[in-house]
Amino acid sequence: MYFPVKDNYHLLSLLPSSSLVQKVYSSHFAKDVRKAREKTHKARLSETYSTDVSIRLPSVVRLLVTQSQPQNVSVLNGSRGGAIRLLSSRPPTWQNQLKPPINRKSWFEHGIPLSAIKEDVDYLRNFFLRFEQLNLSIKDPKKWAWLITWGNRILSTVLFYAQSIQNLPSGWSNAVDIKLKVAHQYFLDPYRTAEAFNKPKEASDWQNVVATDFAYWLNRKIQGNDKMFTPLVEHTKLWKELMLRQLREQNQMVKAVLAVTKEEQA
């Protein structure tokens, strides 16, 4: 129902087809459908199998249309409790296309959004500044354990964004005039099967290069623009060790996947 306003119209009330509203309700919101959905949810929690199909519709609005005048309630409206379910018609959220980092020398400088690590980096920075003000030693086991915990939090975020690059079609690092460090290519394009790529990879110490770059990148983030905090050798060594541990585990997994792929292709 529209009301004319100058050269346009203003929507006063929705007048959808009653049969269409009932079809949506009976397909997704009726009592028996809700029971089936609860059944599949319990099955999923208990890790058991259910033959029922569970469908969930996001951002559904419940609009009450006839409760103030029950004499106007039809049979179908009565079965729905005088409510209409409105499905979301919002446009999709824009997402930038993921591109391989071929124009950057170091992936760490531009591969991780600052907003993704800002909270953890700020915590570490404040943690270190309190150390200096209170003249506390980082050799305290409890303090050192906190550094490991928060260092791993940042590292997990870094590896999450690295995985999105690693999941790109393998071989993207074969681009002409690529500027990315070779060690970073080994890290971010792990499933590239070219012998000319993997043979020098096995002979190089690329993991140490990536871990060192990560450590210096994290130190710069913690320092901030004012550089009130000066990282110690122990800090650099810790960040490097945390990354090396993850790289070794990842490398073993990559080797296993490549070995299986080679057998399947043989």
- Percent helix: 55-70%
- DSSP strand tally: 4
What Rg is obtained from the alpha carbons, in whole angstroms? 29 Å
Biggest sheet: strands side by side, in what order? Answer: 1-2
Helix-strand pattern: EEHHEHEHHHHHHH
Structural class: mainly alpha
Q: Unreliable segments (pLDDT under 50, ≥5 consecutive)?
A: none
* Mean pLDDT reading: 83
Strand residue content: 5-15%
How would you sum up the major sheet? 2 strands, antiparallel
Number of helices: 10
Distance between the termini: 67 Å
* Gross geometry: elongated
Give keywords.
two-stranded antiparallel sheet; mainly alpha
Write up what this structure looks like.
With 266 residues, the protein is mainly alpha-helical. The chain is built from ten helices and four strands; from the N terminus they run E-E-H-H-E-H-E-H-H-H-H-H-H-H. The chain has helices spanning 18-28, 31-45, 75-79, 108-111, 114-134, 141-166, 182-188, 195-203, 206-223, 233-265; strands at residues 2-5, 8-11, 61-64, 83-86. The strands form two sheets. It has a two-stranded antiparallel ribbon.
Q: In brief, what are we looking at here?
A:
Helix content is 56%, strand content 6%. It has helices at 18-28, 31-45, 75-79, 108-111, 114-134, 141-166, 182-188, 195-203, 206-223, 233-265, and strands at 2-5, 8-11, 61-64, 83-86. The protein starts with a strand and ends with a helix.
